[in-house]
Amino acid sequence: MAPTPLDLIPAAIDRFGARVRAVPADRWDAPTPCTEWTVRDLVNHMVSEHLWAPHILAGETLEQVGARYDGDVVGDDPAGAWARAAELSRAAWLGTDLAGSARFSFGEAPLTVYADQMLVDLTVHGWDLARGAGLDESLDPDGVAHSLAYARANVDRFSGLGIVAPPVPTTSTDPAVQLLSLLGRTV
């Protein structure tokens, strides 16, 4: 039986964290494949997402959480900020059963969809981080397989929301390259 996002998220959090800790001091301002984000900006985005996760998984609304995680949430210590957010996020994911739903900026959705999206973000942004920081770009095959299936099923919706760049054509049979290309990355 294939692992679920809930099975894969804790290890994906750890892999992303290992890359954050490995960012060389002179690469925090380097560009990433996310054209509007530097390495630091990308980590800031992921820290914010993982600070939100415990609230969403606990059933809080967007209004209840408010704007507390907007803007700069990493300060002078992006790696430390990631470590703190990751610890809270991991605990929340391990403590949930994904039976419910939550209200997101795009509307009401099952928590299973949120788990899919979180795994895609950890996987693809892990590659973005590695590319921007000059680190090993290899990806977890299980995370790629699940993320690719989710992305294939939702790429048209993603494009309509403007949250990813348009797909980049590829003839590669490598699932990681297919995933990254589908989500607008040139590999």
UniProtKB/TrEMBL annotation:
InterPro entries from the UniProt entry: CHP03086 (IPR017520), DinB/YfiT-like (IPR034660), Maleyloyr_isom (IPR017517), MDMPI_metal-binding (IPR024344)
Coiled-coil ranges per UniProt: none
Gene Ontology MF terms in the entry: metal ion binding
Limits of the Mycothiol-dependent maleylpyruvate isomerase metal-binding domain: 11-130
Entry superkingdom: Bacteria
Annotated NCBIfam families: maleylpyruvate isomerase family mycothiol-dependent enzyme (TIGR03083), TIGR03086 family metal-binding protein (TIGR03086)
Protein name (Swiss-Prot/TrEMBL): Uncharacterized protein (TIGR03086 family)
